[in-house]
Description:
Oligomer: single chain
Number of domains: 1
Structural class: alpha/beta
Strand order of the largest sheet: 4-3-1-5-9
Low-confidence stretches: none
Largest sheet: 5 strands, mixed
Amino acid sequence: MKKIDFVITWVDDTDSKWQEERRKYTPKNKLSSDNRSARFRDLGTLKYVFRSIDKYAPWVNKVFLVTEGHLPKWLNKESPKLVTVRHDEFIPKKYLPTFNSNTIELNIHRIKDLSDNFVLFNDDMILNGLLKPSDFFEHDLPRDFGIYNAIPPMGEFSNIVMNDMIIINRFFNKRETFKKNWRKFVKISYGEDLVRSLLTLPWKPNLGYLNYHVVQSHRKTIFKEVWEKNETVLDNTCMNKFRSWNDVNHWLMRYWQLEQGKFIPQKHNFGKYLEIDQPDEIEKVLRQAKVKTLCINDNVFIDNRKATKTFEIIKSSLENKFPNKSEFENR
């Protein structure tokens, strides 16, 4: 097994310098991009992301923390496994400064010394049980879900996924992909989600894939290949200072892997996505630990006061789950 690195992206929305830069580049046409404050809101999950890695994936090679330059005060910068990376150390200068998460994630493969096999985290993605390297990669291939799904029309993010699929359908033929790799797409272990795939089979174009929105296994070689064949599209996305309707995102690399059949089917109970206004469900998932990874996603429709109050309940559940400091924290 090759080395596996973890990459976590994080922003400190209280950084005054960062706030000033954000105001400076905020577009006048607010409908053209997503600059809502909740998109950058830090509720305090990052500490528990590190604790979960320390507890459940001690075998990880390196953990790369990607930021604009700021670092949390509690971070142990001397940890031998930690590598802190600024945007200007890997993102091409013409794209900076950026407030677009898609720009950051699409350029992750440029990070110096990052292993070819890596797992991409957001700062709200928690490991929820003991994991092995083979839970992320097997036979040098990423573990993933090959489940087809129609894209629901729910705002600008659905538009981004649609942009990804336009490229996928330009380069790949769904029926050929399915014929070559049907054993990876028809898996009883996918449970009831298998029905989604079966219902989309009559359509000739690929309608989309089911996205669990949890930690994602990636390969640098796939990033490089997608950039080589779609440089204009990716360049246009990265030129957008804020997330925009015409963006693509790193899921394009995921779909590319699926279409090539370069993946090993993932276990159906690997991950769960919940939002901060679901504290009871989050507590239950953390306590029962039936799923291996959990995304505790912010809700942009909740104001700061309510979000902070709700997260205090979630924080209590996280403290019960991860009471001990990790090697990534100052003692």
